[in-house]
Structures are given as structure tokens and as C-alpha cells.
Write a structure and sequence with these properties.
Blueprint (H helix, E strand, L loop, with lengths): L9 H4 L2 H7 L5 E5 L5 H12 L10 H8 L11 E6 L2 E14 L6 E11 L6 H9 L5 E5 L3 H6 L5 E13 L2 H7 L6 H10 L12 E6 L7 H6 L6 E2 L3 H8 L5 E9 L2 E11 L2 E9 L4 H16 L6 E6 L2 H9 L3 E11 L23
Parallel strand pairs: 4-5, 11-12
Antiparallel strand pairs: 1-2, 2-3, 3-4, 3-8, 5-13, 6-12, 6-13, 7-9, 9-10, 10-11
Helix pairs in contact: 3-4, 7-8, 11-12
Length: 362
């Protein structure tokens, strides 16, 4: 992906029609963010999202990892600024994705992150988003703020179904004690005590999970050869090790072994009292294998004394059934919106999305 594709297009946005409509003179420029922009971007996100200044999501070190560290298949920055007279007026970050449909050609896609605009400049956020949608043949958004959900149908996004977030209680009493008390605290505790996670036997099934500090070539055959009957998002070794370097969340990688052979992997992100499953791959389309893989994820989270609850995103039936088998409950649902003007994904649904396919996991 070439940076030059989005450079120097401010003239389009500075058109006479736009200036007349909003009754002010301006010079607008869209450009990729650089290292030197991170402090200003941090302050912009704090102001627009009303973050606490110490929120890790606004930390320049985190923004550097999220948008400037190299990612496979993308050249340069993944953060774009729309500036008015040299000041940030809007921002949008990108997460590059490659959809791998069964028996069809791969499809490049993007999802948007930290999409924010100065409320005093109506329309600039949509302008930036429209321009970035040109960088890949498809784009998608999971959930989003109420304003985002109102806007995306107007710019040719269509509904792709639902992303369901599941949760399992591991230590409900500990969560009750650790979190600030509210009117919902007692309800959460009672729900946790009445919905215990199911401890499934892994040993008799020949399954093990082994922690790793870094993924090596032992997972490469799985990444290259996985064949599922549903569309999934492409992974490679560099992607997995990039994820483990996240500075805002304690990331833990695991190999999944069945009868001594590497059969998959997963990555947990642990923040305060909660563990999130960022990514899970199992080299199988068998429901029982996915049941036991999710049991391994749950057991790995249980062994971490800081974890009180586990959260997992699912968009495909095999994963949903595996989570139900392990005692997970549906926490909430979010719409998936897809921009696909050439209908490249028409015969490639459903799509398996995980927390790594965006920024909800960190």
C-alpha cells in the first residue's frame, strides 16, 4: 500500500463549495501520521474521546506500536490525519486484513480504529473516512458509537450480521472485591456465582497448551495450510509476534498440542481483572476439536491468578457452539458493517472475526 495514495489531497477538501457551505477559509490536508505527530495525536484523542490524560489508549508509546510498527502487507503508517491549517481536525487509524474465503481468491480489507473528528468542523471525519476507504477493495466496522452506526449506511456500508461477545466467570468473588461498587455489582456477583465456567477434561483427550514468549516456525504449517469451510482472516508469524509486543496489555501466547503435535495456538490479553482472547486457530473443522480448544483457553485463563473473567468475540457458528459447551454466556451483540462495492464477499460469508481484527482487545 503506497503512502502517496493519500498524500496531498487537501485541495479536494479545500474546494470552494465546501468553504462556502461552512463559511470559513481553511487549508485542509490528509497525510499519514509520523513519529513526531504522536504527542499531538494523543492530546487530540484525549480531547475528542474525553479520555483521562493517563489512559493507556492515549499513550504515545501505545500509539507508536499500534500505528507505526511494521505490519505485513502494509507500507508505512496506519494512522492518518486530516489537518486544518496545520492542526489535527480528524483522525482515523487502519487495521489491514486479508479475508481468506474457502476455494476463492483472497480479498484485502481494512477496519477503522480511533476514528475521531473535531465536533466544531462537521463533515471532516466522514471526508477522511471516505478517502481511506479507497485504499482497499473492502472495509468493515464492528460496532462503533451511535453516531458511527448512523453514518455508515449512508456511505454504502451494508449489514454483515452480528459479532457476539461471550464471557465466562472465573473468579466472581474476586471481581466483586476488585471493581468499584455500583448498583450492578451485586447483580454481577449473583450472575457469576450462578453461571460457573465448566472445567472440561483436557488430559484424557490428549490436549495440552504450552506458554511461549514468542511464536516460532512450529506454527507456520498451520498458518499456511489451514482449510476451513468458512472465511477467516489471514495470519502469519510476524502478525502473532507483533501482537505479543503490545505495550498496553499483558499478552500471553500459547501453543495448542494434541497427542504431542502442534495443532493450533491462541493469544490472551490480560488487563486488570479481565482476560480477552485475541486470536485462536485450530487446524480442524471438527466441532469437538473447537470445544476442547476453547476449554484450553479457559483453563489457561484460570491459571492466571489475576483473571476474574474471560471475554471472547465470535462471529461463526462453530465458535459459538464451542463457547456454549464451555459455559460461556452471551454478554452483548454488535452489528458488523461491510463496504464492498464490487461484491467480492458475496459468496464468502460468514466471516470469522476475532478481537485481533480490530482494537477491541487492547
Amino acid at each position: 500500500m503506497k503512502i502517496a495514495q493519500v498524500q496531498m489531497i487537501g485541495a479536494i477538501l479545500s474546494s470552494r463549495r465546501y468553504r462556502r457551505r461552512h463559511n470559513f477559509q481553511m487549508t485542509l490536508l490528509i497525510r499519514p501520521a509520523e513519529q513526531k505527530d504522536l504527542p499531538a495525536l494523543s492530546k487530540f484523542l484525549v480531547r475528542v474521546y474525553h479520555f483521562d490524560p493517563l489512559d493507556p489508549h492515549a499513550n504515545p508509546q501505545f500509539l507508536e506500536w499500534k500505528y507505526l510498527h511494521p505490519r505485513t502487507g502494509w507500507e508505512g503508517s496506519r494512522s492518518y490525519l486530516l489537518e486544518k491549517n496545520g492542526e489535527i481536525a480528524a483522525h482515523c487509524g487502519l487495521c489491514p486484513i486479508v479475508f481468506c474465503p474457502p476455494d476463492e481468491k483472497n480479498v484485502k480489507s481494512l477496519t477503522m480504529m480511533d476514528w475521531a473528528a473535531d465536533p466544531s468542523l462537521p463533515g471532516v471525519g466522514v471526508m477522511l473516512l471516505r478517502k481511506l476507504m479507497e485504499l482497499a477493495p473492502t472495509s468493515f466496522i464492528v460496532g462503533g458509537a451511535t453516531s458511527t452506526r448512523r453514518i455508515v449506511p449512508r456511505i454504502r456500508f451494508r449489514n454483515l450480521g452480528e459479532a457476539v461477545t461471550y464471557a465466562a466467570w472465573v473468579r466472581p468473588w474476586s471481581e466483586f472485591r476488585l471493581r468499584s461498587l455500583t448498583r450492578r455489582s451485586t447483580l454481577r456477583l449473583l450472575h457469576g456465582l450462578s453461571h460457573p465456567v465448566r472445567n472440561r477434561d483436557l488430559v484424557s483427550s490428549g490436549w495440552k497448551f504450552l506458554p511461549v514468549d514468542r511464536f516460532d516456525d512450529s506454527v507456520s504449517p498451520i498458518l499456511r495450510n489451514v482449510k476451513w469451510s468458512w472465511t477467516f482472516c489471514q495470519r502469519n508469524l510476524a502478525d502473532l509476534n507483533y501482537l505479543l509486543q503490545c505495550p498496553s496489555v499483558r499478552m500471553r501466547g500459547f501453543l495448542l498440542k494434541r497427542h504431542g503435535e502442534v495443532f493450533g495456538y491462541f493469544v490472551l490479553g490480560i488487563s486488570e481483572w479481565e482476560a480477552k482472547l485475541l486470536d485462536l486457530t485450530v487446524n480442524s473443522s471438527d466441532q469437538n476439536d473447537w470445544n476442547l480448544a476453547c476449554a484450553a483457553v479457559t483453563r489457561a485463563a484460570q491459571l492466571d491468578p489475576a483473571v476474574c473473567r474471560v471475554r471472547i468475540l465470535s462471529t461463526v457458528p462453530i465458535m459459538k457452539r464451542a463457547l456454549a459447551w464451555n459455559g460461556y454466556w452471551c454478554q452483548y451483540k454488535e452489528p458488523i458493517a461491510l463496504y464492498d462495492p464490487s461484491d467480492l464477499m458475496g459468496n464468502a460469508l460468514p466471516v470469522s472475526l476475532q478481537l485481533f481484527d480490530g482494537d477491541s482487545g487492547y
